[in-house]
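hiii so um. not sure if this is the right channel but i have a protein structure encoded as tokens and i wanna go backwards to a sequence. like what aa goes where. can anyone help
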């Protein structure tokens, strides 16, 4: 058989690819417990997005399976062995500042803008069309190929946990949910809540009561918005002036607003992926930096002090005493992603720590536990995902690297990242694309996009890769 011209085959189907992707991106598949139910554990919209993909598979003649709305798969081919391609259908919340509506996909200058365009619906659709091409070209494969789609990647990974408790583990596989060329190592993750219990502390000698402090929606994102509500006998005018002064000196957007019985302070930052907290602007940390200079009630002051002492200006765990690095994945990072404080109620900060391959998770936890205990706080809701590593000599790595080199003419450098992908849920797995070297990273940010040419190139690469692994 003549050699398949993979990219040409993609171009023959490109209108259809974009059309289906636009439909897929229009579904607001954000985690929503309020609409969760049977068959929709992560809410109605994530269930709809999953079913959308499975319906495509059904329509095109693949075997499909919906595993109780947690995850599902689209399968092709016959054989003992199974190759897995893992992608997710859920997206992070849109955040502020979009040029066009995040769920009304828009094409400008060859770029498709929408929440999920690059993370991870674009790549999921690319992988689907890759499989579809192999099927339509009638290429013979000796292994089964499964596109496995999860619904909770951006939050708690309940999807793949549930799925792999019930379904077969692929012999090897990849996930199109990071960067090209190839990611063989990923940092370990520790998510936790730094929890404080209200002791109904006395309110003697205060100027302001910290009535509320809220920021962030996801632990893996840098919060771009923070709000504090203050009440008390303090001088409102004076405090408003101080806010203005702080915003000016620190070049931060925000404002203070007076209401009947309180003063509200808003600060705006810059959202960024939680794996690179130093590249965003954490609105909550800036607001806490400001509030440190305000005379607050005992409990409020302690919360703000803790944030300043442990997190402000410390993205690599320096203040927590857990800073470390290796030459594969670099530095340990700390993202303080969700803040919740209400006067006389329990309060918390949710943090995401990403540590190097050889990091010791229990040592890290012990250290953090000790630090937060100085503020009467403790750790709860700890979620651990160990670091992940795939041997460079493994046939999976060798094959994907060769395919990448053939299609791009570029050397396939093996990389390591701080992000966590589904690759780590596989016994043998790597992350493979979709962001090409030198291209901006827009995942989890406003105006997220995928360049259409990159989408087509990625589809061609995935098609050849799947074929070479399964032939
Ligand atoms: Zn993703």
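sure thing!! here u go:
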């Amino acid at each position: 058989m003549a050699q398949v011209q993979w990219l040409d085959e993609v171009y023959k189907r490109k209108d259809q690819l974009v059309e289906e992707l636009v439909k897929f991106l229009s579904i607001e598949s954000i985690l929503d417990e309020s609409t969760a139910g049977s068959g929709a554990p992560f809410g109605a919209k994530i269930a709809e997005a999953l079913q959308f993909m499975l319906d495509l598979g059904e329509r095109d003649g693949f075997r499909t399976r919906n595993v109780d709305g947690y995850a599902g798969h689209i399968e092709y081919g016959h054989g003992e062995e199974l190759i897995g391609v893992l992608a997710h259908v859920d997206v992070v919340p849109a955040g502020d500042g979009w040029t066009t509506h995040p769920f009304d996909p828009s094409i400008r200058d060859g770029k498709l803008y929408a929440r999920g365009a690059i993370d991870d619906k674009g790549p999921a659709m690319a992988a689907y069309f890759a499989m579809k091409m192999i099927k339509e070209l009638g290429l013979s494969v000796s292994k089964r190929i499964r596109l496995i789609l999860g619904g909770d990647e951006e939050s708690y990974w309940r999807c793949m946990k549930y799925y792999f408790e019930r379904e077969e583990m692929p012999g090897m596989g990849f996930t199109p949910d990071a960067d090209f060329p190839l990611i063989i190592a990923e940092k370990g993750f520790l998510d936790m809540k730094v929890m404080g219990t209200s002791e109904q502390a006395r309110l003697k000698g205060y100027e302001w009561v910290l009535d509320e402090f809220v920021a962030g929606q996801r632990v893996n994102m840098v919060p771009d918005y923070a709000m504090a509500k203050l009440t008390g006998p303090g001088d409102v005018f004076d405090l408003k002036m101080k806010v203005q002064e702080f915003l000016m000196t620190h070049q931060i957007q925000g404002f203070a607003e007076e209401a009947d019985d309180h003063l509200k302070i808003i600060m705006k930052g810059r959202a960024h992926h939680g794996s690179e907290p130093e590249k965003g602007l954490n609105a909550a940390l800036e607001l806490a930096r400001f509030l440190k200079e305000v005379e607050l009630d005992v409990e409020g002051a302690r919360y703000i002090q803790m944030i300043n002492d442990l997190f402000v200006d410390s993205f690599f765990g320096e203040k927590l005493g857990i800073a470390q690095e290796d030459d594969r994945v670099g530095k340990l990072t700390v993202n303080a992603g969700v803040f919740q404080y209400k006067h006389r109620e329990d309060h918390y900060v949710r943090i995401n720590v990403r540590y190097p391959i050889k990091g010791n998770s229990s040592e890290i936890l012990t250290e953090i536990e000790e630090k937060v205990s100085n503020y009467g706080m403790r750790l709860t809701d700890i979620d651990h995902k160990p670091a992940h590593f795939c041997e460079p000599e493994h046939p999976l790595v060798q094959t994907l690297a060769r395919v990448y080199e053939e299609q791009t003419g570029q050397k396939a450098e093996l990389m390591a990242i701080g992000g966590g992908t589904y690759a780590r849920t596989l016994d043998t797995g790597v992350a493979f694309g979709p962001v090409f070297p030198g291209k901006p990273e827009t995942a989890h940010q406003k105006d997220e996009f995928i360049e259409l040419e990159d989408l087509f190139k990625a589809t061609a690469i995935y098609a050849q890769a799947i074929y070479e692994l399964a032939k």
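oh and Residues 88, 119-120, 153, 177 surround zinc ion (CB under 6 Å).
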